[in-house]
# Entry
Amino acid sequence: MKNGGGIGTLQERSLHAKIKELYNTPDAEIEVNVDGYIVDVVRGDLLIEIQTRKFSAIKDKLFKLMKNHPVRLVYPIAKEKWIVQQDRNGEVISRRKSPKKMGILHIFEELVSIPTFIIHSNFEVEVILTREEDIRFNDGKGSWKRRGWSSIDRRLIDIVDRTLFSTPKEFLRLIPDTLVEPFTTKTLTEVLKVPRRLVQKMTYCMRKMEILKVIGKEGNAHLYVKNQGSS
# Structure
């Protein structure tokens, strides 16, 4: 391995850079070339990759690296977010709190791209819950939902919580102990109080992780139980 200098730093956003600073301890190296890939942080044998966007974009990179190295994928989720609109000079036009509520369960929005990776002994995921700002500029290129405003940066305000998942079984902590088994996605949705679509992704991932199993049906709905014998 050798230091990759500033490769990859020009395109990274503020959030990515700030989180990378958390792991840039005296015993760490940043932007290191490992097996032909630039890795955000290398700490001893551990490769730390920070991803603020889609997991599918780095799926192949992670798969190849974890064959020979311990890999930690770090993913920030905005528990609280402020929408900041700026003019072309960078002056703030408005700042408002987003009504969108997100939490640790939203990790499954991205894990659907790599649900089996956690089964590998060389792979782990760390979820960082944040308070952050979404910086937007009216360049006319943004989506119709944003009325042409583009998101040009994400800025970290502070960190609310951090959770590391090193084995599939650790994800079972996200299912409340009060939930009666067997259960359906409908009953799990009612307990977790999150969108049904998210719970469907959650149960899909957990089935692929082999920590949930289907034991039958209730109408058209699968009946799930925890696979307590999982690793």
Remarks:
- The first helix runs from residue 14 to 23.
- Residues 1-11 have pLDDT under 50 and may be disordered.
